[in-house]
Amino acid sequence: MREDCTTPNNSPQGLETLKQLFNQYRCALIVEAQLILHDIWEAEDVVQDTFIVLWEKDHLMNVPPEKHKSYIFCAVRNNCLSLQRKLQTAEKKKAHYLETAPQYDMSDQGEAWEVRSRINEAVQELPEQRRLAFIKAHLHQKTYREVGAEMGLKMETVRSHVKIALRNLRGMLKHLK
């Protein structure tokens, strides 16, 4: 756990309770997460991230102590399922891209570089915030919520930036079809 950070809404007693719960249930939570994710490293990350969120947001403050165990197990399970959905969505996007992406043979490699450079130029022509939102959402595969948090924008604003960026790019690159 990150002990170097403090938040104003956490009491020392709450932090001690969280440390105790972490030490007590960590191994069982990792096993539970590993059963869902089938990846021990991802399981450990999910458990760690869950406790970080519990600490930062002070979620256990409103949960009776006798329900802490079930709350934490449920939170880890839900975070595992969310991660699975995110990974499945990324795989679907990748598969869709591979199905719909134009196929080039090696003789067209020069043309492929030309297309890539035109796409890069078109992306660079976008306004800065729109370009950053588009790059983070599509190239870095971050959610609109994550992009919004990084850029200090609302999720809906990020969604609008990406939508407009896609519309602009389609317009700028329609001659490439």
Describe the structure in your own words.
The chain is mainly α and 177 residues long. It has helices spanning 12-37, 40-57, 68-100, 109-125, 128-139, 144-151, 155-173. Helix 6 (144-151) packs across helix 7. It starts with 11 loop residues before the first helix and ends with a helix.
List keywords for this structure.
single chain, 177 residues, 75% helix, 0% strand, elongated, disordered N terminus
Based on secondary structure, the structural category is mainly alpha
SSE string, helix = H, strand = E?
Answer: HHHHHHH
Give the strand content: under 5%
Q: What oligomeric state do these chains adopt? A: single chain
Describe the protein's topology:
Elements: H1 12-37, H2 40-57, H3 68-100, H4 109-125, H5 128-139, H6 144-151, H7 155-173
Helix pairs in contact: 1-2, 1-3, 2-3, 4-7, 5-6, 5-7, 6-7
What does this entry show, briefly?
With 177 residues, the chain is an all-alpha fold.
